[in-house]
Specification:
This protein is of the alpha/beta class. The chain has one domain: Rossmann fold (3-Layer(aba) Sandwich), CATH 3.40.50.2020. The protein contains five helices and nine strands; from the N terminus they run αβαβαβββαββββα. It has a six-stranded mixed β-sheet with strand order 4-3-2-5-6-7, sandwiched between helices. A three-stranded antiparallel β-sheet has the order 1-9-8. Bound molecules: inosinic acid and magnesium ion. Magnesium ion (MG) binds next to strand 5.
């Protein structure tokens, strides 16, 4: 992989990502004092963000993972598939969904709907990135790390065709990488 050619620009640096996690962690710790916090992360894109924000949260919490997919290449298919369910029963929990990016919103609104049937006490959303330009579903995040323009981004867990997840920053993928696919 020739990073210089494939990444057009760095959109969120390592330093800024650290700062975002610290700030969101502080806010969440304040808001969830005395509650029954269950962090639910969406595989696989949100795992890096989950690992970092988790360590900035100072109130007791549990974590769990689920897996859905609605993506094919760089465009959402609009069809969401449930691939892995929660291990923990969220009955009575204050769920905070930890997502990498809110784009069309189709994935999160589907997920929220599914979790609403599970007797959780509350359900909120924390997303690292928010791309409002492409929104199709009527959904808003309660915690947002950074609002970004309508560009396809990779790194810090986010992928293109399962690659680039290991980059320590968020970068804009050069269209030349996916234009011929
Ligand atoms: P939505 O249903 O369109 O909101 O899509 C949400 C999911 O699509 C995210 O959780 C990501 O996994 C993926 N996604 C959306 N935009 C991007 C992007 O710019 N880069 C990588 N993945 C993305
Ligand atoms: Mg995702």
């Amino acid at each position: 992989m020739n990073i210089e050619k494939e990444i057009k620009d760095i959109l969120v640096s390592e330093e800024e990502l650290k700062h975002i996690c610290k700030e969101l962690g502080k806010q969440i710790s304040r808001d969830y004092e005395g509650k029954n916090l269950l962090l639910v992360s969406v595989l696989k894109g949100a795992v890096v963000f989950m690992a970092d924000i988790l360590r900035e949260i100072t109130v007791p919490c549990q974590i769990d993972f689920l897996s859905v997919s609605s993506y094919s290449g760089t465009k959402s298919t609009g069809v969401v598939k449930f691939k892995k369910d929660l291990d923990i029963n969220p009955d009575g929990c204050d769920i905070l969904i930890v997502e990498d990016i809110l784009d069309s919103g189709v994935t999160l609104s589907y997920l929220k709907g599914v979790l609403e049937d599970r007797n959780a006490k509350s359900i909120k959303i924390c997303t690292l990135l928010d791309k409002p330009a492409n929104r199709k579903a009527d959904i808003k995040a309660d915690y947002v790390g950074k609002v970004i323009p309508d560009e396809f981004v990779v790194g810090y867990g986010l992928d293109y065709a399962e690659n680039y997840r290991n980059l320590p920053f968020i970068g804009i993928l050069s269209p030349s990488v996916y234009e011929n696919n």
